[in-house]
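Researcher: Hi, I'm a grad student and pretty new to this. My advisor asked me to get structures for two proteins we've been looking at. I'm not sure of the right format, so I'll just paste the first sequence and hope you can take it from there.
Model: That works fine. Here's the first sequence with its structure tokens right after it:
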Amino acid sequence: MNSAMNSAVTPAIEIRGLTKNFGQAEIIRGVDLTIAPGERHAIIGPNGAGKSTLFNLVSGMFKPTAGEVRLHGERISGLPPYAVNRRGLSRSFQVSSVFTNMTVRENVRCGVLWSMGQKYAFWKSVRASRAVQERTAEILAMVGLTDKADLPAALLPYADQRTLEIAITIAGGPSVVMLDEPTAGMSHSETARAVALIRAATAAKTLLIVEHDMGVVFGLADRISVLCYGEIIATGTPEEIRGDPRVREAYLGDEAGLEAAQ
């Protein structure tokens, strides 16, 4: 993308010398990464590479041992997750984390409240806010869950629960969206629908995604970074990554997955 090439533009995410130790184990080893506004960037790597740990560091779930993370030029490393979220970064998780005892509509509405400047008050019903209701309805329509809006989230099929989680992630109007294996466990047709949804839901936003399905990665990402044993060994376009011998060496027997993405 043009923005990715323009050094004058403040990066959406800038990671410098990021390190995370758990005891004597160094899981993330001095990672440097710059992601431009509006870029769709995928993180791939073999199991145990540190992808989820890196996600947790960027989103505030973990505090780094060293290094820093900046969001639109502002340092966010070390801030708690809610503070990172309030600065415009929202993420999903590997395991679905919707509120199963609430309806689909209520789940999305919770995500909308912050972006609409609403606060909880025991004497005031959020149902009375037309703006909140309209924005909630808009998101439900965008993700195709309008007809299931009044169902308890616990009753949704697995793929729809993942869809609901994406809806919650974008409900607060973040500028940066992080999705952690959003198509895991989905069938081929469900994955195709999820990819179309991700494209639509993150239009004009910055996307950072961890995903094991190479077809999804190579079809969705503008650029890809390969994490191996806590270090980024390659970053480039899908074409550059597909042909990089270091990437093939990292995946060893999983080259078939790279070939299938061509």
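Researcher: Oh nice, that was easy. Here's the second one.
Model: And its structure:
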Amino acid sequence: MELGVQLHYQLPAGAQVLPALDVELQLAPPDAPGTVRRPDLIVVDHAARLRTRREGGVVRASEVLLLVEILMPGSHRTDLVHKRGEYAEAGIPHYWVLDTDPASLRIDDAVVTGTFTTTEPFPLELDLDALVD
């Protein structure tokens, strides 16, 4: 939850960080069964969260601003290969994988440790070491 807290206080107005909600990847035709994943954290616009509550549905891939998976023993291949490919195909613009042993963040092919500073998808600074203390 520490990552969610750090994100929460730096999000732009109108964005929300949400834990473990289903995301419809929108890879199948509308009349076919879809592909749904439940990432550890997602950041969406407030309007997407309201729509999801109102309709009782899932978050759409097209509504996701940032998606984060937390690497667990046994999930390396799924998180780093399978999900990365699915999320890219679904058009999710920002996919991060947090590894807590040791504390690092994988973004595309880069691995970041210590303090992570970025302007995409919005300006923020994360203290990765604080995530495992």
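Researcher: Is there anything I should tell my advisor about the second?
Model: You could mention this: Helices lie at 2-8, 46-55, 76-89.
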